[in-house]
Design brief:
Number of strands: 0
Structural class: mainly alpha
Shape: elongated
Helix content: 40-55%
Order of helices and strands: HHH
Length: about 60
């Protein structure tokens, strides 16, 4: 696994990190590599919003 050290002072998602780091334990995060090339082309073709479309599919 490749790790990258981030400078939190210049990190564009600093506010997200601060919010989630203050939550009470336990909480779980999961990451995965997902191939979405065809998905992206299809929603772009149909002029659908990426984020909402992706959330819909992930929730199924």
């Amino acid at each position: 696994m490749n790790y990258q050290i981030l400078d939190l002072e210049t990190y564009k998602r600093k506010s997200h990190f601060e919010y989630f780091s203050q939550l009470a334990y336990p909480y779980v995060g999961v990451t995965a590599d997902v191939e979405i090339t065809e998905f992206h082309a299809k929603i772009k073709e149909q002029r659908l919003p990426f984020f909402l479309s992706f959330c819909y599919c992930a929730a199924l």
